[in-house]
Design a protein that fits this description.
It contains 2 helices and 12 strands; from the N terminus they run αββββββββββββα. It is mainly beta. The radius of gyration is 23 Å and the shape is globular.
Length: 185
Amino acid sequence: MTSFEETETQETVTCLYMTFYHPHPEKMMFRCLNFCKQEQVGAHEMAQFGRDSNVCRYSLMDTYVSRIQFSLQFYRKLNSSEFCFEIKNMSKKKLTVDQTELGYLNKIDLPWKCIICFGDYQILAEVQEGESADYFETYLNLAEAPILQERCLPSLQPIPQNGISSSLFPSQGQSPIEIDENDSY
C-alpha cells in the first residue's frame, strides 16, 4: 500500500465567518481579536464573546460590553448529520439576532446568515457547513461601514401627506393622475 492510500479522508470543517462593526473603532475595542485568520475551536468548547479575557475566547475591550456578552455552542441536530450553532445571551443587556430579541440566558439556533446586535455593535455571522465533528473554525473580519446598511434592507421612501405609502399600492406602470379638489369623481 502506498502512503496516499493510507492517508485519512479529509473532512470539510464548519466555518463561522463573523464581520464586526462599531461606529468608533478608534476606541480599540477589537484589539484582542485576530482578524483575517482562521482559528480552530474544539467542538466541545463554548465560543464566548465578552470583556473578560480570562473567560472569553473573543475579547471586546469596551466597558459597555458585559464580562460575558454571548456564547456560541457548536452542536449536531438530533438524528441528523447537520451541524449548527446555538447563540445564548449571557448579559442582562438586550441582544438581538436579526429581529429576535434575546433576554438574559435566552438562546436560539443561530441562522446560517444573520446580524447580531448589542449596544453599538453589529456582527454579521455566516455559517459555512462542514462535516467535522471534532472542531469548527472561526474567521473574523472588521467592517468599515455599518452592516445593517450594507444588508438588503428596504430603502426608505418618502410618505405622502395623506400618510399612505405608494409602495403599499403599486401603480403597475401608471403615472399619477392629478385631480383638482373642486372636481367630482
